[in-house]
Design brief:
This is Sigma 54-interacting transcriptional regulator. With 444 residues, this protein is α/β, with parallel strands linked by helices. The protein has 20 helices and 15 strands. Bound molecules: adenosine-5'-triphosphate (ATP).
């Protein structure tokens, strides 16, 4: 596996044991500048590229901020810059995602030498692959949320395939996890794969695995794919609309035959996996444009669940806002700030293109400022920045040409020092959609 693929895994924020093994070897043999993020229990969380953050202090920064800096450098660029100029270090990130300190690579090696069992890296067991969120994590009392919860309950009773539709940040993954957690498969694996984030040539091996000797560089004993890992449980195929037609045909086969074929494998392997797919794309339009297979759509759309955007259930904004205030204040060890009068009205008047995710990020930013209260002024600067972007977006929509979209992305990338997270955020699209656009427009 190449370093680039590891970075992809990091961007995907889910790594298998084999990736951990690879990173460990690479750090030992090559003294590379990758850093490993672990939680307080020592469980592996992801890989960071040290150079992009080595010049800045991580003290007091949230994990998200650090990751944004890492992403800002851009994966291609980050890999080009790997060299030995900088001292490698391992930031230790606590359970809440905040950095609590750094240990150097040398210290890490000493730990490995002196301890027989791996002190920092632990193998990911199937247990931490089960769904984390439950139906109780879904906040809101509106009719929309209530009927969403009813759909979750009915979907959990059966094993049919579910297709979750909705804009970015509306809670598609949350709903998928809630279904899995209520179903008979709740103690079995819940495996998520973001079909948009994995490069096309890797997707097949990620999904179906490969046999020993399937290709040069393959692991000695072969590798399990996500379908095999999810056996007995649930697989969540996120951003299914971004899957290429060839892969769509292979997924269709799994749904029809309930068996997978590993790369280089001689026999199909039966799998018992419940599929939950999600997308923000308009699949019916994609079918018309011959970008999505109609037969696969029918196979997936057995239980359709549509999650409306946040602006269609503004009555949930206040409970969501308060919920995340308390959650972040607790995580950061701060007292929950007072909310100034008129704040909720302002929140309700906004149209939330990034939906609940955007609201959640805003709360995190407000809490991190630790100002003791949430004032209207704090919101107006956030909203006016966003509105400025949208005015520019409108121009783009009027032009509605590929060139205009390309130019707009380039402009925002420049404006935000290539910080793709920020750009995705201001454009109100998910990071994977932005990556797809970058790929499509050949923006490096
Ligand atoms: N009703 C809700 N109550 C509480 N939290 C929510 C709710 N809806 C969404 N969230 C939170 O908002 C964030 C975004 O949700 P999620 O990742 O499930 O969205 P998504 O639709 O899958 O987004 P994308 O299409 O960009 O992948 C998550 O942190 C999730 O926990």
């Amino acid at each position: 596996m190449k370093a680039k693929d590891i970075m992809n895994c990091f961007f995907e924020e889910c790594c298998t044991t084999d990736h951990v093994g690879y990173v460990k070897n690479m750090m030992i043999e090559k003294q590379s500048d990758f850093a490993i993020v672990v939680d307080r229990e020592g469980r592996y969380k992801g890989v960071l590229y040290a150079r992009s953050i080595v010049n800045t202090s991580i003290e007091g920064k949230t994990c998200h901020e650090i990751m944004s800096e890492v992403r800002a450098i851009g994966e291609e660029q980050a890999l080009e810059h790997i060299n030995d100029d900088y001292k490698s270090f391992i930031p230790v990130i606590n359970r809440m995602g905040y950095p609590v300190g750094i240990i150097t690579l040398e210290e890490m090696f000493n730990l490995w030498r002196t301890e027989k069992k791996e002190p920092v890296f632990q193998r990911k067991t199937p247990n931490n692959r089960t769904a984390k969120y439950t139906i109780d994590d879904i906040i809101g009392n509106s009719h929309i949320v209530m009927s969403l919860k009813e759909s979750i309950l009915s979907a959990a009773r059966v094993r049919s395939t579910v297709l979750i539709l909705g804009e970015t940040g509306v809670g598609k993954e949350l709903v998928a996890q809630a279904i899995a957690n209520l179903s008979a498969r709740r103690f079995k694996p819940f495996v998520r794969i973001n079909c948009a984030a994995i490069p096309e040539n890797l997707l097949e091996s990620e999904l179906f695995g490969y046999e020993a000797g399937a290709y040069t560089g393959a692991l000695k004993g072969g590798n399990q794919g996500k379908f095999e890992i999810a056996d007995g449980g649930t697989i969540f195929l996120d951003e299914i609309g971004d899957m290429q037609l060839m892969m769509q045909a292979k997924i269709l086969r799994v749904l029809q035959e309930r068996e997978i074929e590993k790369i280089g494998g001689r026999y199909p392997i039966p799998v018992d996996v419940r599929v939950i797919a999600a997308t923000h794309a308009d699949l019916e339009r994609m079918i018309e444009n011959r970008e999505f297979r109609q037969d696969l759509y029918y196979r997936l759309n057995v239980i359709p669940i549509h999650i409306p955007p946040l602006r269609e259930h503004v009555e949930d904004i206040e409970p969501l806002f308060n919920h995340y205030i308390n959650l972040y204040a607790e995580e950061m060890g701060l007292t929950a700030p007072n909310v100034e009068r008129g704040v909720y009205e302002m929140l309700k008047a906004y149209h939330w293109p990034g939906n609940v995710r955007e609201l959640k990020n805003l709360v995190e930013m407000l809490i991190a400022s630790n100002s003791g209260r949430i004032a209207k002024g704090m919101l107006s600067s956030y909203f006016s920045d966003k509105l400025e972007y949208e005015r520019q977006d409108e121009n783009y929509l009027k032009l509605n040409s590929i060139e205009a979209e390309r130019e707009m992305i380039l402009k925002y990338l420049k404006m935000h020092d290539n910080n793709k997270n920020k750009v995705a955020d201001v454009l109100g699209i998910s990071r994977s959609t932005l990556y797809n656009k970058l790929k499509r427009y050949q923006i490096k």
